[in-house]
Description:
- The protein is an alpha/beta fold.
- The chain is built from 15 helices and ten strands.
- A ten-stranded mixed β-sheet has the order 7-6-5-4-3-2-1-8-9-10.
- It is globular.
- About 40% of the residues are buried.
Amino acid sequence: MRSRPSPWRARYQQRFAAPQTVVVQPTTWCNLDCRYCYLPFRKLKHQMPLEVAEALAQAVAQFDDSGHPIGIVWHGGEPLAVGQQKFAALLAPFEALRRAGRVHHYVQTNATLITETWCDLLATYDVCVGVSIDGPAALNAERVDLRGKPAFDRILRGISQLREHGIPFSVISVVGTLGIAMPEELLEFVTSLGGHSVGFNIEEIEGVNTDRQPPTAVQAEEFWRRTLTWAREHPGAPAVREVERLAEYLKLIRSSRRTEWDGRRLDPIPTVSWKGDVVLLSPELADTAAPEYGDFVAGNIRDRRLPEILRDAHRLRYVRDFLTGLDRCQAECEFFDFCRGAQAANRYFENGDLTTTETNYCRVSRQALVTALSTLATKEAVA
């Protein structure tokens, strides 16, 4: 007699697709000590053994070829802190997959370590580069080194190396209580850097960053309203990640492609730690211990294949609680159609419970963006 399929598995498959992104932690250590950083072990110098990278490459090769490369995102600590020789060795197991178009490498870096030889290595492996910088010197003041010295000039030197060697890069800026009131200055500075796009991460309560006051929804709506206005007036400027996502949503739902948007499922974003532990849903949950959910580890790729770990994701309590929270979001929130109710880490760190719904992250990064656009449209209609 055939056993009945698990309702939790069906619910998981309804919400989640196969991974499009795998986040990989080559080291816990970072050469900076940003005051808002959420990483608890950034001063420990753990490095990923080569056998973990080899196991991960073998696991990724087992995924079905969707025709689109899986993003292998090297994300810290500071990934480049492992050194060029070690980084190249970690990339090597993926080389056959990369050449076959099955994977594409990304690295998120503070850029302070980038040199001419680093640029050569990044170009050799066609690594997409994301640079973390929060704006001009005054807005970047929270990014300091382990001695508390500003990192701004070193970041700019790294960016100059990227530009001199023709390596495209994107920018991610953390927007705090100072930057939230200065969107035009921030956008003009980012444009001057020469990157092709920028993402604005409004400062969040997560990990060990729990004592700072994040921007409010009112501040965020004003930030997004001015950002939308500036972006429209500067069509040649770098694309703003959040604005692009909202524009794509509006384009699809207003056309005959509405079903394409409705059919999109969430990425489980498996995050592989330096020692091979796998955490699902949000990279920020890695290295976190919770009374309700333990350490969030779904398995270790040295013991189990990643496809098997993902196949059993619906058995994990924190995944089930997150699915319950998604159902509640869909039933209760007017912004769900755009937001899709993701960001598990924010639910946990803000509310302590993944079955909950609204977070400050929702209010400042999703809801405020939509209401800002609505406000602008209303003003233009009345004018």
